[in-house]
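Students often ask what a 'structure token' actually looks like in practice. Rather than answer in the abstract, let us consider Serpin domain-containing protein, a protein of 401 residues. Its sequence is given first.
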Amino acid sequence: MEGNVSCFSAVYRLLAILTGVLLVVLLSVVVMIRGASGSHRSGGPSFPPYAHHEAVTSLAASQNRFTCDLYTKLAEKKSGNLFYSPFSIMTALGMTYAGARGNTEQEMRSVMHLSDDKEVVHDAFMDVVSDMKIDAGDYELRTSNMAYVSNHLPLLSQYDKILKEKYQSTAKTVDFDASEEVRQEINAAVEKETNSRIKDLIPSGALNSLTRMVLVNAVYFKGLWAEQFDKADTYDREFWTSNTENVKVPMMYKKSKFRIFFDKDLGATVLAMDYQGSRLSMVFVLPDKRDGLAEVESKLATTDLSELHRKLREVEVEVSLPRFKLEETLDLVDTLSEMGMKDLFHYQLADLSGISGKNNLFVSKVFHKAFLEVNEKGSEASAATGMFVICWLFYVMHSLG
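Now compare that with the structural description of the same chain:
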């Protein structure tokens, strides 16, 4: 059987979908490719089974739903390229969720579609984080969680334990009175963990003496295609950005066997390109119509991404794919608030008493930066998310003073 998938039109705009799927596959690797036994398709290293398989499966479903919800909300505000790592964002939120109580906890759980059992949620993150620290051999896939805590904020022992045991993050005490030094230290750590792909996660002036904690997740991936493109076959070709407009871009070409599926309900063709080791793949979604992207976007919000992945079958196809590089910077406070996570960002309503025992903390910023490059050899992706916890009581006192 032979098919023809030519010029992935609108792939730039679609990259959030690709990335949603990509990072469900890549950065939540566990979910779609590994089973309860920890097995995977032939090739690559052997991975142990998950200690909490059902919890990981539940977290996978939660992330899929959160990915689509977040994409839908971001796409309403932003035209053009859109790229983010749902795994990185959810991990940073997960560390914050561990200290949330009351309505703040309920809103976070609802927006992220998490289990009612917080222990189950943290166990799942523990398995995923541990899994990503295993030497995979054929590719690089790693994540790092960091907590920078003010010397004026004593953490509850239980919260500190969750950070250490579930997220493999050791809280480092810092002095936010020297906020610029702390900012540079955090940015340097993120840059190191992402192989210099994510720089200046925290912008100048974002931290101050009222900052009580910064929670950071960094994730990095680099892999080579199992079926690499030949550079000699890359040439400039029309890339359609709308039904009537196009630009010339370097287009890679490959005729080979790939896993593919035409989804009539979605109105799109789904293509998976495996990386060496066969454990991970990048997934592309091509609308049937040149102007059909908006319709596919709306349907993806209710599409079971795991089920879509299971329907893929190996077929010989011709693939033309743009060679591209993307970088994205997002401040997610307004977006997450509009999704229903309101109290977390309100200085009078937030309940993060599970962090220090006091109810005077709220989240002021959620910065997210992401990078993706796709070329003939493979792809490289990285992302980092930083959440700033502020002490509002001091701010109020300062205002009144």
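One point worth highlighting: The radius of gyration is 21 Å. Ask yourself how you might have guessed this from the sequence alone, and why that guess would often be unreliable.
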